[in-house]
Amino acid sequence: MKKSLHQKIILQTATINDYPTIQNMARFYVYDRTKYMGWECPETGLFECVDFKHYFEKQDHQAFFVKIDNELAGFVLLDKIKIIEKVDWNMGEFFILAKFQSKGIGSQAAREIFSRFPGKWSVAAMPENLGAVKFWRRIVNEISKGQFTEVFKTEKELTTPGNPDPYAMIIFNFNVIHSI
């Protein structure tokens, strides 16, 4: 049965018990990125991802499942990491499974997250991921009513002791004043 474009999403807080599920889904997240990053499939046939455990262990991090009719549709991972400037929230990772992409699910999930967490935000996308850049530009423009900055930063500009091997990013900074 085909899912409706306007189905209500549920953002469910993920706990440390959900960490293995998020980490398993992260393999699909990395697989999706191969479309524009050109990464090779590992010999094992299993894509690996950065360990997301810190999203469950640190007080200033938040993890959520995106669900449709109790089915996993993706995840959202928030932190307070400063990319360019100090923010209240940074969209650490945002992933919607292929089955649910281009159906409005990601837009609903993003709006709901911004509604729950007002304040100064940062969202970054790899410039090679044209779909994500277009998606975030549209959503951020809508949420901020056109009041945002968009900056390209190279790998060198983003290198820090805590992130010695970053990717170039397009970074959006904006404010969410109140619930949307």
From TrEMBL:
UniProt KW keywords: Transferase
Annotated Gene3D superfamilies: 3.40.630.30
N-acetyltransferase domain sequence ranges: 9-174
Superkingdom of origin: Bacteria
Gene Ontology molecular function, alphabetical: acyltransferase activity, transferring groups other than amino-acyl groups
Keyword set includes Transferase: yes
Coiled coil stretches, renumbered: none
SUPFAM superfamilies linked to this entry: Acyl-CoA N-acyltransferases (Nat)
Pfam families linked to this entry: Acetyltransf_1
Classification via PROSITE patterns: GNAT (PS51186)
Protein name, per record: N-acetyltransferase GCN5
Gene source species: Legionella erythra
